[in-house]
Amino acid sequence: MEWLFDTLRKYPELAIFLTLGVGYWIGAKKLGGFSLGAVTGTLLVGVLVGQLNIQIAPVVKQVFFLLFLFGLGYGVGPQFFRGMKSDGLPQVLFAVVLCVICLLASWGTAVAFGFDAGTGAGLLAGAQTISAVMGVATDTINGLTKVDEATRKQWIDSIPVAYAVCYIFGTIGSAWLLASVGPKLMRVDLVKACQEYEAQMSGGQDSLELSGYRKFIARVYRLDQADLVGKTVADLEARFADDRVFVERIRRDGGVVDAMPTTVLQAGDVLGVAGRHDVLVLQAAGKIGAEVEDHELINLPAELIEVVLTNKKLAGKTLREISAMPEASLGRGVFLRKVVRGGHDMPVNWGLKLDRGDHLFIVGAKRDVERVVDKLGYADRQTAQTDMVFVGFGIVIGGLLGSLVLTVAGIPVTLSTSGGSLIAGLVFGYLRSVHPTFGRVPEPVHWFLTSVGLTTFVAVVGISSGPGFVEGFRQLGFKLFLAGIVATSVPMLIGVPLARYVFKFHPAIALGVCAGARTTTAAIGQITETAKSQVPALGYTIPYAIGNTLLIIWGIVIVLLMA
Q1: Number of C-alpha atoms within 13 angstroms, CB side, residue 46?
Q2: One-character DSSP codes across 390-409
């Protein structure tokens, strides 16, 4: 063991990877449905490894922290700027108000409990589950030239202690308060409220979203309806209205022809038809004719492709409004499988408004899909390549702007390279959503930036502060835990009634708005599970983008307030 300890001291890079490996393993373990998560697991392992007194160059954690912040901004940028539009402004304003409440609750609690600036910043990071506060708060403390070095070190060492203690209730408590207490505060049945909201959005029509049973299929029918002979394919398809059934091919006189909306139907035609499984099974025979077997007729290459929506004409419109547009015929033969916004699945029905930057998963015959892609936006085809020119210059530009110092009342104020990188990520992420021909960061790489970037930073923080962590926990552990309960609960108990009765959000999305502004992913998962619906996620993405930005910046503010 002594040889292992000496080796880790000699090669600190190995200590970092040891911390990451064990930290991710511990963070994934679940106890009663709760897990520490990779960040907290890595921090605790880092503290343990740090007892070996391992020295790591500070630049290591800063490099990974900048990667994390740029990646975070890149991911939420489209929703951040999308929220500045008129229909998103109420959610933006609510997120700002709730974030201010989070800051005031954390600051007031820290002052009431007699904490120093470092402990206050850690309390904010843990209670509001915003790990990145540890980084920006550390940068801010290091920039306090009027504070002696010993005090700065004490404050910095206090940050991970407070974060680790307060994070537990910050995560569990937020999910419990929003999913269980929230509906009681609004006096609603959340499941029923979501059902009503979905019905309102869809106009009484069934959801367009797929279940495990309802798949898009192709089947063959012989045209038996005499009143359809001499009519066009479009006339036949109109009989299915919103159910969107399409004739793809026709067998006629022993040959196969592609069907167009203007194609005139003839007696004896055999039709290859595409649509939802339930619609074809229950309705097609009665509206077309008897089902027959013809493998060749429906043996068309099919494709599922992910498209980033960039078309300004479609952004801001519901699926029903889009279907009524003249351009809607361009979507003939193509079905919408799902919509992902800000990493979260949206409830797909006729009332869903599409936004620029939405990821649309469309499926259909290859020829139809390729015809539609350019009309929607940009095909986000799978690739392993990352535009590192985009990433590298983004971080440099943001870091340079963030390094500028503005003196206010004799106090040097700066976003630091950390805050600058976050802002650059927001801008660059938005630009990518509008012009997706450049700046590609594949999803696995984005995960690496945001997950491994943050956990590596946290690993170094834990290892570096390890020697002082145990003593700080011994002195303030229980006191910090109580403070974390207060700082976590107050914003949530105020936020839910505020969302429902002041901002007048529908109860189906009010809890999602609260979870987004608090950037608590665990809570939105618990809320959607309790609601038995994805509707609450409609209120999550815009506040999440605003909350992620403001709460990180609060790491600077709370240090300045308390120092």
Answers
A1: 33
A2: HHHHHHHHHHHHHT--EEET
Identify residue 101 by its one-letter amino acid code: I
Q: Collapsing DSSP states into helix, strand and coil, what is residue 450?
A: helix
Q: Are 234 and 261 in contact (CB under 8 A)?
A: yes
Element (H or E) spanning 278, and its range? helix 277-279
Q: Which of 460, 532, 355, 380 is nearest to 62 (CA)?
A: 460
Residue 456 contacts residue 64 (beta carbons within 8 Å): yes
pTM: 0.71
Q: Among residues 77, 185, 128, 100, which one has the least CA distance to residue 431?
A: 77
Mean pLDDT by 10 residues, the chain (563 residues): 92 96 92 77 90 90 90 85 77 95 96 95 93 90 87 91 87 88 93 86 55 66 92 92 88 90 92 90 90 88 87 88 72 85 83 88 87 85 85 93 74 73 89 84 90 90 79 81 94 95 92 90 82 86 89 92 90
- Quick one: CA dihedral 188, 191, 193, 196, positive or negative? negative
- Give the dihedral sign, CA 323/327/332/336: negative
Beta bridge partners, 247, equal 273
Return left, alpha or beta for 387; rule: phi > 0 is left, psi -120 to 50 is alpha, else beta: beta
